[in-house]
Amino acid sequence: MKVAVEGCCHGELDKIYESISYLENKDGVKVDLLLCCGDFQAVRNEGDMKCMAVPAKYRQMQTFYKYYSGEKKAPVLTIFIGGNHEASNHLQELPYGGWVAPNIYYLGYAGIIRFKGVRIGGLSGIYKSHDYKKGHFEFPPYSPDTLRSVYHIRNIDVFKLKQVKMPIDIFLTHDWPRGIYHYGDTNDLLRKKKFLRQEVESGVLGSPAAAELLEHLQPSFWFSAHLHVKFAALMQHEAKNNAAPKVTKFLSLDKCLPYRDFLQIVEVPDRPGSSELLEFDPEWLAILKATDSLQKPCRNFWNPPLNNGLHTRWDFSASEEAMMEVVSDLNGELCISENFSLTVPAYDPSHPQPNAPPAYSTNPQTTELCATLGLTDIYILAGQSYGEEGATGAIEEEEDADSTGSVEEPSEYPTDTSNLSSSYNPDEITIEDEWVEEENEEVGFTEGKGTDAVVPDSGAGSQESDRDSSLQRDMVKRLVLPPPGAKLEMRAPLRTPLHLTLPPPSTSFSQGSSEEECDLMPARVPKRSSGEATKSSTGHTGGTPQIKRRNQSIYTATEDEESES
Protein backbone atom coordinates (compact mmCIF):
# COMPACT_ATOMS: atom_id res chain seq x y z
CA MET A 1 0.00 0.00 0.00
CA LYS A 2 1.03 3.62 -0.54
CA VAL A 3 1.39 5.66 2.65
CA ALA A 4 1.60 9.46 2.46
CA VAL A 5 3.43 11.08 5.39
CA GLU A 6 2.86 14.75 6.18
CA GLY A 7 4.75 17.00 8.58
CA CYS A 8 2.94 19.85 10.36
CA CYS A 9 -0.60 20.15 9.06
CA HIS A 10 -1.70 23.49 10.58
CA GLY A 11 -5.27 22.90 9.45
CA GLU A 12 -4.42 22.88 5.75
CA LEU A 13 -6.38 19.72 4.95
CA ASP A 14 -7.68 20.93 1.60
CA LYS A 15 -4.18 21.68 0.35
CA ILE A 16 -2.76 18.41 1.64
CA TYR A 17 -5.47 16.32 -0.02
CA GLU A 18 -5.06 18.35 -3.23
CA SER A 19 -1.34 17.57 -3.22
CA ILE A 20 -2.02 13.86 -2.75
CA SER A 21 -4.54 13.93 -5.59
CA TYR A 22 -2.00 15.60 -7.85
CA LEU A 23 0.59 12.94 -7.08
CA GLU A 24 -1.91 10.18 -7.71
CA ASN A 25 -2.81 11.61 -11.11
CA LYS A 26 0.77 12.37 -12.10
CA ASP A 27 2.30 9.04 -11.11
CA GLY A 28 -0.70 6.79 -11.62
CA VAL A 29 -0.74 5.61 -8.00
CA LYS A 30 -3.42 5.37 -5.33
CA VAL A 31 -2.57 6.50 -1.79
CA ASP A 32 -4.12 4.20 0.82
CA LEU A 33 -3.26 6.05 4.00
CA LEU A 34 -2.20 9.52 5.18
CA LEU A 35 -0.18 9.97 8.38
CA CYS A 36 0.04 13.47 9.89
CA CYS A 37 2.77 14.15 12.46
CA GLY A 38 1.06 16.80 14.58
CA ASP A 39 -0.15 20.39 14.64
CA PHE A 40 -3.24 18.99 12.97
CA GLN A 41 -5.59 21.70 14.31
CA ALA A 42 -8.92 19.85 14.41
CA VAL A 43 -10.81 23.12 14.94
CA ARG A 44 -14.58 22.63 14.79
CA ASN A 45 -15.77 26.18 15.51
CA GLU A 46 -14.75 29.55 16.91
CA GLY A 47 -14.77 28.24 20.47
CA ASP A 48 -12.16 25.61 19.59
CA MET A 49 -9.83 28.29 18.24
CA LYS A 50 -9.65 29.80 21.73
CA CYS A 51 -8.27 26.49 22.99
CA MET A 52 -5.36 26.56 20.55
CA ALA A 53 -1.95 27.73 21.74
CA VAL A 54 -1.71 30.46 19.12
CA PRO A 55 -1.85 34.23 19.76
CA ALA A 56 -5.44 35.36 19.20
CA LYS A 57 -4.68 37.67 16.28
CA TYR A 58 -3.06 34.82 14.31
CA ARG A 59 -5.84 32.27 14.68
CA GLN A 60 -7.66 31.11 11.56
CA MET A 61 -10.45 28.62 11.08
CA GLN A 62 -8.72 26.82 8.18
CA THR A 63 -10.59 23.88 6.62
CA PHE A 64 -11.00 21.06 9.14
CA TYR A 65 -14.54 22.15 10.05
CA LYS A 66 -15.70 21.17 6.55
CA TYR A 67 -14.70 17.56 7.22
CA TYR A 68 -16.15 17.63 10.72
CA SER A 69 -19.52 18.98 9.53
CA GLY A 70 -19.79 16.52 6.66
CA GLU A 71 -19.52 19.17 3.96
CA LYS A 72 -16.49 17.21 2.76
CA LYS A 73 -15.12 13.74 3.44
CA ALA A 74 -11.44 12.95 3.63
CA PRO A 75 -10.59 11.21 0.34
CA VAL A 76 -7.81 9.25 2.05
CA LEU A 77 -7.96 7.45 5.40
CA THR A 78 -6.08 9.81 7.71
CA ILE A 79 -4.35 9.06 11.02
CA PHE A 80 -2.77 11.82 13.10
CA ILE A 81 -1.19 12.66 16.43
CA GLY A 82 -1.31 15.92 18.35
CA GLY A 83 1.42 18.54 18.38
CA ASN A 84 1.73 21.87 20.16
CA HIS A 85 -0.81 23.83 18.07
CA GLU A 86 -4.06 21.96 18.59
CA ALA A 87 -7.70 22.48 19.55
CA SER A 88 -6.92 20.87 22.88
CA ASN A 89 -10.50 20.82 24.17
CA HIS A 90 -11.44 18.67 21.16
CA LEU A 91 -8.56 16.22 21.41
CA GLN A 92 -8.98 15.85 25.17
CA GLU A 93 -12.38 14.29 24.50
CA LEU A 94 -10.51 11.36 22.93
CA PRO A 95 -7.69 10.40 25.33
CA TYR A 96 -7.59 6.86 23.89
CA GLY A 97 -8.09 8.03 20.31
CA GLY A 98 -11.07 8.10 18.01
CA TRP A 99 -12.65 9.64 14.92
CA VAL A 100 -12.58 13.45 14.75
CA ALA A 101 -14.39 13.34 11.40
CA PRO A 102 -15.39 10.59 8.98
CA ASN A 103 -12.21 8.89 7.74
CA ILE A 104 -9.93 10.95 10.05
CA TYR A 105 -8.62 9.16 13.16
CA TYR A 106 -6.73 10.57 16.15
CA LEU A 107 -4.36 8.24 18.05
CA GLY A 108 -4.98 9.84 21.45
CA TYR A 109 -2.37 10.77 24.05
CA ALA A 110 -0.64 7.56 22.99
CA GLY A 111 -1.92 4.71 20.91
CA ILE A 112 -1.32 1.75 18.62
CA ILE A 113 -3.71 0.56 15.92
CA ARG A 114 -3.48 -1.62 12.81
CA PHE A 115 -4.22 -1.00 9.17
CA LYS A 116 -3.81 -3.76 6.60
CA GLY A 117 -1.72 -5.63 9.15
CA VAL A 118 0.72 -2.76 9.72
CA ARG A 119 1.11 -1.72 13.37
CA ILE A 120 1.05 2.06 13.66
CA GLY A 121 1.78 3.77 16.97
CA GLY A 122 2.12 7.34 18.09
CA LEU A 123 2.66 9.75 20.98
CA SER A 124 0.96 13.15 20.93
CA GLY A 125 2.40 16.43 22.18
CA ILE A 126 5.89 17.70 22.86
CA TYR A 127 8.30 17.10 25.73
CA LYS A 128 8.67 19.57 28.61
CA SER A 129 10.52 18.38 31.69
CA HIS A 130 8.54 20.48 34.18
CA ASP A 131 5.23 18.83 33.21
CA TYR A 132 6.50 15.37 32.26
CA LYS A 133 5.77 13.67 35.60
CA LYS A 134 2.36 15.25 36.14
CA GLY A 135 -0.99 13.68 35.36
CA HIS A 136 -3.39 14.89 32.67
CA PHE A 137 -4.99 17.43 35.02
CA GLU A 138 -5.86 20.13 32.45
CA PHE A 139 -9.47 20.88 31.64
CA PRO A 140 -11.15 23.76 29.80
CA PRO A 141 -11.49 26.65 30.22
CA TYR A 142 -7.71 26.84 30.06
CA SER A 143 -5.50 29.39 31.75
CA PRO A 144 -2.44 30.64 29.85
CA ASP A 145 -0.46 27.99 31.74
CA THR A 146 -2.73 25.03 31.05
CA LEU A 147 -3.28 26.11 27.45
CA ARG A 148 0.33 25.07 26.91
CA SER A 149 0.82 22.33 29.49
CA VAL A 150 -2.17 20.42 28.09
CA TYR A 151 -0.13 19.29 25.08
CA HIS A 152 3.00 18.37 27.04
CA ILE A 153 3.88 14.67 27.03
CA ARG A 154 3.39 12.77 30.31
CA ASN A 155 5.47 9.91 31.63
CA ILE A 156 2.37 7.75 32.19
CA ASP A 157 1.87 7.54 28.42
CA VAL A 158 5.54 6.80 27.80
CA PHE A 159 5.38 4.13 30.51
CA LYS A 160 2.43 2.49 28.74
CA LEU A 161 4.31 2.45 25.43
CA LYS A 162 7.35 0.94 27.12
CA GLN A 163 5.22 -2.08 28.05
CA VAL A 164 4.90 -2.95 24.34
CA LYS A 165 6.82 -6.11 23.42
CA MET A 166 5.57 -6.94 19.92
CA PRO A 167 7.23 -5.28 16.89
CA ILE A 168 6.02 -1.85 15.75
CA ASP A 169 6.13 -1.00 12.05
CA ILE A 170 5.52 2.77 12.12
CA PHE A 171 5.72 5.24 14.99
CA LEU A 172 4.78 8.94 15.01
CA THR A 173 5.91 11.75 17.29
CA HIS A 174 5.68 15.50 16.84
CA ASP A 175 9.09 16.42 18.22
CA TRP A 176 12.22 14.47 17.34
CA PRO A 177 13.84 11.76 19.46
CA ARG A 178 16.85 13.35 21.12
CA GLY A 179 20.08 12.51 19.32
CA ILE A 180 18.52 11.29 16.06
CA TYR A 181 20.34 14.08 14.19
CA HIS A 182 23.61 12.15 14.70
CA TYR A 183 22.36 9.44 12.32
CA GLY A 184 21.74 11.68 9.32
CA ASP A 185 23.43 14.57 7.54
CA THR A 186 23.88 16.86 10.52
CA ASN A 187 25.86 19.44 8.56
CA ASP A 188 23.07 19.83 6.04
CA LEU A 189 20.55 20.18 8.86
CA LEU A 190 22.57 22.99 10.44
CA ARG A 191 23.03 24.66 7.08
CA LYS A 192 19.25 24.86 6.73
CA LYS A 193 18.45 25.61 10.38
CA LYS A 194 21.38 27.55 11.80
CA PHE A 195 19.63 28.34 15.07
CA LEU A 196 19.70 24.64 16.03
CA ARG A 197 23.50 24.47 16.19
CA GLN A 198 23.91 25.08 19.92
CA GLU A 199 21.31 22.47 20.84
CA VAL A 200 22.75 19.91 18.42
CA GLU A 201 26.31 20.43 19.61
CA SER A 202 25.27 20.21 23.26
CA GLY A 203 23.13 17.14 22.59
CA VAL A 204 19.88 18.56 23.96
CA LEU A 205 17.82 18.98 20.79
CA GLY A 206 14.77 16.76 20.81
CA SER A 207 12.76 14.74 23.27
CA PRO A 208 14.50 12.38 25.73
CA ALA A 209 11.16 10.59 26.18
CA ALA A 210 10.98 9.91 22.45
CA ALA A 211 14.60 8.73 22.53
CA GLU A 212 13.66 6.20 25.23
CA LEU A 213 10.81 4.94 23.09
CA LEU A 214 13.01 4.74 20.00
CA GLU A 215 15.45 2.55 21.90
CA HIS A 216 12.67 0.37 23.32
CA LEU A 217 10.28 0.03 20.36
CA GLN A 218 12.84 0.07 17.52
CA PRO A 219 10.15 0.53 14.85
CA SER A 220 10.88 0.10 11.17
CA PHE A 221 9.88 3.72 10.50
CA TRP A 222 9.73 6.78 12.71
CA PHE A 223 8.07 9.94 11.38
CA SER A 224 8.21 13.37 13.06
CA ALA A 225 7.75 17.07 12.31
CA HIS A 226 7.88 20.15 14.61
CA LEU A 227 11.20 21.67 13.48
CA HIS A 228 9.90 22.47 9.98
CA VAL A 229 12.79 20.90 8.14
CA LYS A 230 13.03 17.76 6.06
CA PHE A 231 15.59 15.44 7.60
CA ALA A 232 16.24 11.74 7.09
CA ALA A 233 18.33 9.40 9.22
CA LEU A 234 19.10 5.70 9.49
CA MET A 235 19.63 4.28 12.96
CA GLN A 236 20.89 0.75 13.58
CA HIS A 237 20.01 -0.50 17.05
CA GLU A 238 22.06 -2.81 19.21
CA ALA A 239 21.15 -6.46 18.87
CA LYS A 240 18.92 -7.90 21.59
CA ASN A 241 18.74 -11.50 22.78
CA ASN A 242 21.05 -12.75 20.01
CA ALA A 243 18.57 -11.48 17.39
CA ALA A 244 19.67 -9.56 14.32
CA PRO A 245 19.96 -5.82 15.03
CA LYS A 246 16.96 -3.76 13.93
CA VAL A 247 17.12 -0.63 11.80
CA THR A 248 14.85 2.41 12.06
CA LYS A 249 14.37 4.76 9.13
CA PHE A 250 13.66 8.24 10.50
CA LEU A 251 12.04 11.02 8.49
CA SER A 252 10.96 14.47 9.60
CA LEU A 253 8.99 16.69 7.24
CA ASP A 254 8.21 20.37 6.86
CA LYS A 255 4.96 22.28 7.27
CA CYS A 256 2.40 22.72 4.51
CA LEU A 257 3.66 25.83 2.74
CA PRO A 258 4.69 26.68 -0.84
CA TYR A 259 7.99 25.19 -2.00
CA ARG A 260 8.43 23.15 1.18
CA ASP A 261 9.03 19.41 1.61
CA PHE A 262 5.93 18.70 3.64
CA LEU A 263 4.75 15.46 2.01
CA GLN A 264 6.43 12.13 1.28
CA ILE A 265 5.06 8.84 -0.02
CA VAL A 266 6.39 5.45 1.05
CA GLU A 267 5.25 2.08 -0.20
CA VAL A 268 4.41 -0.65 2.29
CA PRO A 269 3.70 -4.19 1.06
CA ASP A 270 0.16 -5.40 1.65
CA ARG A 271 -0.24 -8.15 4.21
CA PRO A 272 -2.39 -11.04 2.98
CA GLY A 273 -5.66 -11.55 4.80
CA SER A 274 -5.51 -8.24 6.66
CA SER A 275 -8.55 -6.01 7.08
CA GLU A 276 -9.15 -3.00 4.83
CA LEU A 277 -10.43 -1.11 7.90
CA LEU A 278 -8.69 0.27 10.97
CA GLU A 279 -8.34 -2.25 13.76
CA PHE A 280 -7.70 -2.11 17.47
CA ASP A 281 -4.42 -3.64 18.62
CA PRO A 282 -4.98 -6.35 21.28
CA GLU A 283 -1.62 -5.84 22.96
CA TRP A 284 -2.18 -2.11 23.32
CA LEU A 285 -5.71 -2.48 24.67
CA ALA A 286 -4.47 -5.04 27.19
CA ILE A 287 -1.82 -2.55 28.34
CA LEU A 288 -4.47 0.16 28.69
CA LYS A 289 -6.52 -2.14 30.92
CA ALA A 290 -3.51 -3.13 33.02
CA THR A 291 -2.36 0.46 33.61
CA ASP A 292 -5.78 2.04 34.10
CA SER A 293 -5.40 2.35 37.87
CA LEU A 294 -2.12 4.26 37.48
CA GLN A 295 -3.78 7.31 35.90
CA LYS A 296 -4.20 10.30 38.20
CA PRO A 297 -5.49 13.69 36.93
CA CYS A 298 -3.36 15.73 39.33
CA ARG A 299 -0.44 18.13 39.25
CA ASN A 300 1.59 16.01 41.66
CA PHE A 301 4.63 14.25 40.24
CA TRP A 302 4.23 10.55 39.53
CA ASN A 303 7.05 8.06 39.12
CA PRO A 304 6.44 4.76 37.32
CA PRO A 305 6.75 1.58 39.38
CA LEU A 306 10.20 0.00 39.27
CA ASN A 307 11.60 -3.39 40.18
CA ASN A 308 13.24 -2.02 43.31
CA GLY A 309 11.38 -3.84 46.06
CA LEU A 310 9.02 -0.92 46.68
CA HIS A 311 6.24 -1.98 44.32
CA THR A 312 4.16 -5.13 44.16
CA ARG A 313 3.96 -4.82 40.37
CA TRP A 314 6.20 -3.07 37.88
CA ASP A 315 5.69 -5.11 34.71
CA PHE A 316 2.44 -4.17 32.97
CA SER A 317 3.18 -5.80 29.64
CA ALA A 318 0.39 -7.80 28.02
CA SER A 319 0.26 -11.55 28.48
CA GLU A 320 -1.35 -13.77 25.88
CA GLU A 321 -4.19 -14.36 28.31
CA ALA A 322 -4.75 -10.61 28.74
CA MET A 323 -4.84 -10.10 24.98
CA MET A 324 -7.36 -12.89 24.57
CA GLU A 325 -9.49 -11.25 27.27
CA VAL A 326 -9.50 -8.02 25.25
CA VAL A 327 -10.57 -9.88 22.13
CA SER A 328 -13.36 -11.45 24.17
CA ASP A 329 -14.43 -8.02 25.46
CA LEU A 330 -14.79 -6.94 21.83
CA ASN A 331 -16.74 -10.08 20.93
CA GLY A 332 -13.89 -11.24 18.73
CA GLU A 333 -14.08 -8.24 16.41
CA LEU A 334 -11.16 -5.82 16.38
CA CYS A 335 -12.37 -3.55 13.59
CA ILE A 336 -12.76 0.02 14.89
CA SER A 337 -16.39 1.00 14.54
CA GLU A 338 -17.00 4.04 12.33
CA ASN A 339 -19.05 5.65 15.07
CA PHE A 340 -18.17 9.31 14.62
CA SER A 341 -20.78 11.83 15.71
CA LEU A 342 -20.79 15.60 16.17
CA THR A 343 -20.38 16.64 19.79
CA VAL A 344 -20.48 20.42 19.22
CA PRO A 345 -21.92 22.55 16.40
CA ALA A 346 -19.65 23.06 13.41
CA TYR A 347 -18.50 26.47 12.22
CA ASP A 348 -20.97 28.16 9.89
CA PRO A 349 -19.31 30.77 7.63
CA SER A 350 -22.68 32.39 6.97
CA HIS A 351 -23.32 32.87 10.70
CA PRO A 352 -19.97 33.46 12.39
CA GLN A 353 -19.89 33.56 16.19
CA PRO A 354 -16.54 35.11 17.12
CA ASN A 355 -17.53 35.34 20.80
CA ALA A 356 -18.56 31.69 21.12
CA PRO A 357 -17.04 30.15 24.26
CA PRO A 358 -15.10 26.88 24.10
CA ALA A 359 -17.28 23.79 24.37
CA TYR A 360 -16.43 20.78 26.47
CA SER A 361 -18.32 17.51 26.68
CA THR A 362 -17.56 13.83 26.81
CA ASN A 363 -17.26 11.97 23.54
CA PRO A 364 -19.49 8.93 22.92
CA GLN A 365 -16.56 7.08 21.34
CA THR A 366 -14.57 7.33 24.56
CA THR A 367 -17.62 6.43 26.63
CA GLU A 368 -18.17 3.34 24.51
CA LEU A 369 -14.56 2.15 24.66
CA CYS A 370 -14.35 2.71 28.42
CA ALA A 371 -17.58 0.79 28.98
CA THR A 372 -16.43 -2.08 26.78
CA LEU A 373 -12.97 -2.50 28.31
CA GLY A 374 -13.56 -1.17 31.81
CA LEU A 375 -11.31 1.86 31.33
CA THR A 376 -11.47 5.23 33.07
CA ASP A 377 -12.31 8.31 31.02
CA ILE A 378 -9.34 10.53 31.90
CA TYR A 379 -11.21 13.57 30.60
CA ILE A 380 -14.06 13.04 33.09
CA LEU A 381 -11.53 12.54 35.90
CA ALA A 382 -9.85 15.82 35.01
CA GLY A 383 -13.24 17.55 34.85
CA GLN A 384 -14.22 16.25 38.27
CA SER A 385 -10.90 17.37 39.72
CA TYR A 386 -11.35 20.76 38.08
CA GLY A 387 -14.85 21.09 39.51
CA GLU A 388 -13.61 20.27 43.01
CA GLU A 389 -10.65 22.62 42.92
CA GLY A 390 -12.34 25.38 40.91
CA ALA A 391 -10.78 27.33 38.10
CA THR A 392 -7.08 27.66 38.89
CA GLY A 393 -6.10 30.88 37.27
CA ALA A 394 -8.36 30.78 34.21
CA ILE A 395 -8.50 34.29 32.87
CA GLU A 396 -10.22 36.20 30.14
CA GLU A 397 -8.41 36.27 26.83
CA GLU A 398 -6.46 39.30 25.77
CA GLU A 399 -6.56 39.64 22.03
CA ASP A 400 -2.86 40.40 21.69
CA ALA A 401 -1.58 38.04 24.37
CA ASP A 402 1.45 35.97 23.43
CA SER A 403 3.33 33.08 25.01
CA THR A 404 6.71 31.49 24.83
CA GLY A 405 8.46 28.13 25.02
CA SER A 406 11.87 26.48 24.30
CA VAL A 407 13.91 25.25 21.37
CA GLU A 408 11.90 22.05 21.52
CA GLU A 409 8.75 24.11 21.11
CA PRO A 410 9.46 26.48 18.21
CA SER A 411 6.70 28.72 16.95
CA GLU A 412 5.88 30.09 13.56
CA TYR A 413 3.73 32.73 15.20
CA PRO A 414 5.33 36.05 16.21
CA THR A 415 5.54 36.22 19.99
CA ASP A 416 7.18 38.26 22.71
CA THR A 417 8.22 37.54 26.28
CA SER A 418 6.10 40.17 28.00
CA ASN A 419 3.50 37.74 29.33
CA LEU A 420 5.39 34.70 30.56
CA SER A 421 3.78 32.09 32.77
CA SER A 422 5.07 29.31 34.96
CA SER A 423 5.14 27.07 31.89
CA TYR A 424 8.02 29.14 30.55
CA ASN A 425 11.21 27.15 29.99
CA PRO A 426 14.37 29.18 30.63
CA ASP A 427 16.19 27.26 27.91
CA GLU A 428 14.36 29.26 25.25
CA ILE A 429 15.92 30.83 22.19
CA THR A 430 14.45 32.93 19.44
CA ILE A 431 14.12 31.39 16.02
CA GLU A 432 14.40 34.61 14.06
CA ASP A 433 17.18 33.00 12.00
CA GLU A 434 14.62 30.63 10.54
CA TRP A 435 12.45 33.53 9.47
CA VAL A 436 15.43 35.25 7.87
CA GLU A 437 16.06 32.07 5.87
CA GLU A 438 12.43 31.94 4.81
CA GLU A 439 12.49 35.61 3.88
CA ASN A 440 15.56 35.13 1.69
CA GLU A 441 13.94 32.09 0.14
CA GLU A 442 10.81 34.12 -0.59
CA VAL A 443 12.83 36.97 -2.10
CA GLY A 444 14.37 34.41 -4.43
CA PHE A 445 10.92 33.33 -5.59
CA THR A 446 9.75 36.90 -6.23
CA GLU A 447 12.87 37.57 -8.28
CA GLY A 448 11.93 34.79 -10.65
CA LYS A 449 13.94 31.95 -9.16
CA GLY A 450 12.59 28.46 -9.02
CA THR A 451 11.14 28.67 -12.52
CA ASP A 452 11.67 24.97 -13.01
CA ALA A 453 8.35 24.37 -11.27
CA VAL A 454 5.88 22.06 -12.92
CA VAL A 455 2.49 23.30 -11.74
CA PRO A 456 -0.66 21.20 -12.19
CA ASP A 457 -3.90 22.75 -13.30
CA SER A 458 -5.93 23.95 -10.33
CA GLY A 459 -9.66 24.03 -9.95
CA ALA A 460 -11.78 27.03 -10.77
CA GLY A 461 -11.23 29.83 -8.34
CA SER A 462 -8.21 28.17 -6.80
CA GLN A 463 -5.31 30.42 -5.94
CA GLU A 464 -3.01 27.60 -4.96
CA SER A 465 -1.42 24.79 -6.91
CA ASP A 466 1.18 22.09 -6.44
CA ARG A 467 4.79 22.41 -7.43
CA ASP A 468 7.18 19.75 -8.69
CA SER A 469 10.77 20.84 -9.02
CA SER A 470 12.02 17.50 -10.30
CA LEU A 471 9.81 14.95 -11.99
CA GLN A 472 12.55 12.36 -11.89
CA ARG A 473 12.86 12.65 -8.13
CA ASP A 474 9.09 12.39 -7.70
CA MET A 475 9.00 8.70 -8.59
CA VAL A 476 7.85 6.68 -5.61
CA LYS A 477 10.48 4.32 -4.25
CA ARG A 478 9.79 1.33 -2.08
CA LEU A 479 10.35 0.96 1.62
CA VAL A 480 9.79 -2.57 2.86
CA LEU A 481 8.29 -3.44 6.25
CA PRO A 482 8.88 -6.63 8.24
CA PRO A 483 6.77 -9.74 7.52
CA PRO A 484 3.02 -9.43 8.04
CA GLY A 485 1.03 -10.33 11.13
CA ALA A 486 -2.51 -11.58 11.69
CA LYS A 487 -5.70 -9.72 12.68
CA LEU A 488 -9.48 -9.75 13.33
CA GLU A 489 -12.48 -7.41 12.79
CA MET A 490 -15.29 -5.63 14.71
CA ARG A 491 -18.22 -3.18 15.05
CA ALA A 492 -19.76 -1.66 18.17
CA PRO A 493 -22.86 0.40 19.08
CA LEU A 494 -22.87 4.19 19.44
CA ARG A 495 -23.60 5.94 22.68
CA THR A 496 -24.77 9.49 23.24
CA PRO A 497 -22.40 12.08 24.71
CA LEU A 498 -22.54 13.07 28.37
CA HIS A 499 -22.31 16.83 28.75
CA LEU A 500 -20.35 17.95 31.77
CA THR A 501 -21.84 20.53 34.12
CA LEU A 502 -18.91 22.71 35.06
CA PRO A 503 -18.09 26.38 35.63
CA PRO A 504 -18.69 28.56 32.55
CA PRO A 505 -15.73 28.67 30.19
CA SER A 506 -13.41 31.56 29.81
CA THR A 507 -11.13 32.09 26.93
CA SER A 508 -7.38 32.21 26.61
CA PHE A 509 -4.20 32.08 24.23
CA SER A 510 1.78 29.69 21.10
CA GLN A 511 4.25 28.00 19.46
CA GLY A 512 6.38 25.46 15.79
CA SER A 513 10.33 24.57 12.23
CA SER A 514 11.82 21.60 8.38
CA GLU A 515 13.82 19.91 4.70
CA GLU A 516 16.47 17.25 4.16
CA GLU A 517 16.99 14.42 1.82
CA CYS A 518 18.75 11.11 2.26
CA ASP A 519 19.04 8.37 -0.28
CA LEU A 520 17.66 5.86 2.19
CA MET A 521 14.23 7.54 1.98
CA PRO A 522 11.92 7.90 -1.04
CA ALA A 523 12.37 10.75 -3.47
CA ARG A 524 10.58 13.92 -2.48
CA VAL A 525 7.13 14.81 -3.72
CA PRO A 526 5.90 18.11 -5.15
CA LYS A 527 5.95 21.10 -2.88
CA ARG A 528 3.12 23.58 -2.63
CA SER A 529 3.14 26.73 -4.67
CA SER A 530 0.97 29.79 -4.41
CA GLY A 531 -0.65 31.85 -7.08
CA GLU A 532 -0.63 34.81 -4.77
CA ALA A 533 2.16 37.30 -5.20
CA THR A 534 4.63 37.11 -2.34
CA LYS A 535 7.00 39.66 -1.10
CA SER A 536 9.14 40.11 1.96
CA SER A 537 10.26 42.93 4.11
CA THR A 538 13.95 43.01 4.82
CA GLY A 539 14.19 46.34 6.54
CA HIS A 540 14.34 46.29 10.31
CA THR A 541 15.91 47.93 13.28
CA GLY A 542 17.28 46.28 16.37
CA GLY A 543 18.30 42.67 16.78
CA THR A 544 15.20 40.93 15.49
CA PRO A 545 14.21 41.23 11.80
CA GLN A 546 10.75 42.31 10.67
CA ILE A 547 9.34 39.92 8.13
CA LYS A 548 6.07 39.36 6.34
CA ARG A 549 4.98 35.75 6.34
CA ARG A 550 3.59 34.13 3.23
CA ASN A 551 0.80 31.77 2.18
CA GLN A 552 -1.70 32.64 4.91
CA SER A 553 -3.26 35.91 5.86
CA ILE A 554 -2.28 35.27 9.46
CA TYR A 555 1.27 36.11 8.47
CA THR A 556 0.51 39.46 6.83
CA ALA A 557 1.09 41.48 9.98
CA THR A 558 4.64 42.79 10.35
CA GLU A 559 5.89 42.16 13.88
CA ASP A 560 9.10 41.90 15.82
CA GLU A 561 9.33 38.14 15.74
CA GLU A 562 10.57 35.99 18.53
CA SER A 563 9.53 32.44 19.30
CA GLU A 564 9.40 29.92 21.98
CA SER A 565 10.46 26.36 21.81
TrEMBL record:
A biological-process GO annotation: mRNA splicing, via spliceosome
All residue ranges annotated as the Lariat debranching enzyme C-terminal domain in the record: 235-379
Entry GO CC: nucleus
Disordered, as annotated region: 393-426, 438-475, 496-565
Keyword Ribonucleoprotein among record annotations: no
Sorted UniProt keywords: Hydrolase, Iron, Manganese, Metal-binding, mRNA processing, Nucleus, Zinc
Necessary cofactors: Mn(2+); Fe(2+); Zn(2+)
GO molecular function: metal ion binding; RNA lariat debranching enzyme activity
UniProt-listed Pfam families: DBR1 (PF05011), Metallophos (PF00149)
Residue ranges, compositional bias (Polar residues): 414-425
Signal peptide: none
Bias (Basic and acidic residues) ranges: 464-475
Superkingdom field: Eukaryota
Cellular localization per UniProt: Nucleus
Family stated for the protein in its record: Belongs to the lariat debranching enzyme family.
Name of protein: Lariat debranching enzyme C-terminal domain-containing protein
